[in-house]
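Section: Multi-chain targets

For targets with more than one molecule, the full set of components is provided together so that the structure can be written out for the assembly as a whole rather than chain by chain. Components appear in the order listed by the source. The example entry contains two components.
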Amino acid sequence: MVQVPLRDYAYANARVRAMTARLLDGTAWSRLLSAPDYNHFLSELDETEYGPYVEQALLEGIQVTQVDRAFNRILTDHFNKIKGFFEGRPRELVCAVLSRWDLYNLKTILRGKQAIVPNSEIVRNLVPIGYLDDVTLGEIAEQPDLRASIDLIAAFSRGWRVRYGAALMTRLREYYRQHDLAVLESAMDQEHYRDIIEVVRGGDSSSLKARRLIALEIDIINHITLLRVSGMDLDREQLERYYLTGGSMDYRLFQRLARSRDEEELIAALSGKDELKAPLQRALAQLDEKGYAAFQDELDRYQLRQALRMDDDPLDLGVIIRYIWLKWMEVANLRIAMRGKAIGMIESQIRKEMLDVGAAGEAKAG
Amino acid sequence: MEQVHPTRSELLKRKANRTLAEQGMNLLKRKRDALLREFMPIIDETMRLSLRLERVTMEAQYELAMAKAREGGPVIRSASFASAGEALVDITGTHVMGVPIPIIRKGSSSMRPITRRGYAITGVSSRVDGIADKFEEIIDVIIESADIETRLKRLGEELRKTNRRVNALENVVIPDLNEQIKFINMSLEERAREDVFRLKKVKKALERKEEERLRRLTG
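Its structure, encoded as tokens over all components, is:
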């Protein structure tokens, strides 16, 4: 049956709700987690909708890496399928929500080119689910060197929603002076969020939800960045490079907090205000046990919960956003379980490491 | 025992050889003691470093597995493309009791600040920082281990060689020389006794001839 792309959410959301119902349920999780070893885990996984992907992966080898890539393929197929439901503004918003993968893909190509990684290896690590498809990314990856890839990004990106090429060209001279790829990557990060936040500007509920999600992502990155650079002697140029616009934190506050010498004062300042107060305080309580990873874990979990709560209207983007995050969480949990089984972890240990399956089940039921 | 000529000059030569062998053995024993004094603390240090390496590697592997699980293997692999680097090592040399030993030192620490790892921190999860810290620490510990283990290996070889030489001198060469000296001494003494006996015989014969001559003169 040929699907005609639509400009409204009614039909697509019904399809996505059906896809949500096909996510792994409690019984499937119990069977997977009680598998005695990695091979039995794969056999159980073969019984789910991951079966064909796992079988294809097993043709390449039985290693965790091959199955891991199969998980990326299933994400790519599912999310591209959702994009195919729409045209016009709804498609634009879905792509914007998924666009951080464009950023990841382009960076992976540039990193691979700089480290002289074979093209086939670069392509294997790409996840083409944003605006950019596998053909475009493959063409950029096929270029003979880093400069040629940058030139092609610059040429292609004249027609893209995010002007990665312009950002790269602006910092190219600095890159050649320092030979530090981070210079180019931060330019791409800044351009990405600056442009994407503009793409999702609009008064309708779907645009507002997409904007809220991306603004939250920017806030989380800015908060984590401040924690990561705390105590470092950074000059003005570096600070400007690490700040992302589009979130709730303005640059002056970012600059002031980044210059804060006292780590405790910084954490108190970050956790004392705005909507991230609760997750930051939870992370603070775990700081001794987990270190700074506690902040990343808690903020990621907060973002996940916010995304899962966005399906209050059956006729807007919230249903899609919720599915995307549910699927992402399911795959993350499968990865944790698979690697846990591969290194001989017991079920209770794996459950402790997993993102909350119970919450996912409730969310799925909801 | 080799062919020995039981002569006085040979005895002197063997005695000189024995003195030399005993002096050599004492020197080698002193060298062995000195090597042992160097060797024992290195064993402790090697054990400490190998335990540290084992612990850090285990922690790093666990964190890597968890980060790959959370972020996805390709994401971590992508970050690793960016942070590929080189570890500089200085190699010089020294001598311990005449044993040449290489000294391996870090050119600079492999531990890099998060702003110098090749990726923009705004685009890579902070979980990667933890893994990078651990693996950079592993490189540092490997370089330290390489230095101490090479030292241990060289000293160990020299110690074994010295011990073998001491044992050869103590249990083979010196006892052999002692045997040879004893044999020469016995041979010389035997020869002296024979000479005395022969002289006594000659003396008796001469005395008998003298007695006969006197008897003929008086008779």
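The interface with chain A takes residues 62, 65-66, 68-70, 72-75, 77-79, 81-82, 84, 113-123, 125-127, 129-130 of chain B (CB under 8 Å).
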